[in-house]
Amino acid sequence: MSANAAALRANLAGALGGGSSSGPDDRTLAHRTLVVTVRKDPPFNPADRLEATDVSIRLAGARFVGWDTLATAYTTINAGTVQFTAVRGLTESVSAPSGVPAAVGATLGASQSDTRAETLAVTQQAETLSADVEDGGRRLVIHRQGGLGVDLTGNTVVKVDIAYDGNPSRTVLTAIGAYRDKAGAILAPGALALTQSLVLAPPPGADVKAKVDLTYTVRHILAGDGTYEEKDDRVQEITRASTVANDTPLVPARDFSPTFFGLHAGGPGHGAVGILRPGGALTGLCFATYDEAGQFLAWLRTAQAKDPSVLGDARIGFNPVPPSGALIEPLRPADIPGLQARPSCIT
Q: Strand 194-201 relative to strand 25-26: parallel, antiparallel, unpaired?
């Protein structure tokens, strides 16, 4: 449980993350912070109050894996004990249009690296608050039931894990340990140390959208609103349901589908530069960032190797055009001046 308000704010801002793993880097899981806002829109009797709300968030093309840290102005719930190391995060906000009684927003926490352990604690509640993952993970339902004098307008914050449901794309990333030796001299192509890792990620353009529905109960005062006491009130319970938003983007494609970078020939006829490892097939020479691709290109131009197609124990080059039966068309010195670092590393 968060020890104080500052700790709770830090908790909500941090992104959920998984521990280290020796397997593929799985980026099909998004860690999001959903902010559900319920408000009263005119005309509304000031003496009336929202007594109960059920907000349903249904995903398309993805599913909820779980939730943690459910909080309102009155109540905070931490779902048992959670231990993890936060890794990374981005930021995105969405909301429903005005004129409806609820809106949903989503934010992804900022980059962070820390270890946190939390335990469930029992506290007095001014409301009943719960969240349920239903329909095989397709739907998250947040239920609130207010007590005496408690109006349920305001924000509900819940941290969720959302998993992509389709077939992920598989990309092999290449990293170069160093381009110079300890004396500062440029390393020869055969002396470079390569490491490669497999990344599983949603395909380009994949996003996660949600349908948001609200069911709410209003305690409508018919008489007795002239006093603070509620025992003399004559009330009417009004329950209504409506769809707040369709196709609300919870995880935009720019967050869910990572962009990798490669080297492209300036002229037509070739895709990105590929890499051929011993016993393997030609795959794109993919780098995690634009800077890494640019550093490799700068090394190629500086090294001025007689055979730039040699890279450690691998060969780099292009898919043969037209197809000739060869596994690779080796990179030549004449190709290097026309190379450019660009998004995409598809050969």
A: parallel
Query: Rg of the chain over CA atoms, in angstroms?
Result: 27
pLDDT digits (tens, 9 = 90+) for 128-147: 888 889 998 999 999 988 87
3-state helix, strand, coil split of the chain in percent (to 5) is: 10, 45, 45
Q: Which residue's entry shows tokens 């500086």?
A: 302
Contacts of 39 (CB under 8 A, 6+ apart): 101, 102, 103, 153
Global pTM exceeds 0.85 = no
Checking phi first, is residue 22 left (phi over 0); if not, alpha (psi -120 to 50) or beta?
alpha
Tokens coding 40: 């009263």
Q: What is the pLDDT of residue 78?
A: 65
Contact predicate 309/336, CB 8 Å: no
pLDDT tens-digit series, residues 210-241: 999 999 888 777 775 665 556 666 777 888 88
Sort 8 into a burial class: Cβ within 10 Å, 0-12 / 13-18 / 19+: middle
Closest CA to 316 of 215, 177, 201, 176: 176
Q: Domain map of the chain by residue range?
A: 5-165+206-253, 169-201+259-343
The Cβ of residue 198 has, within 10 Å, a number of other Cβ atoms equal to 12
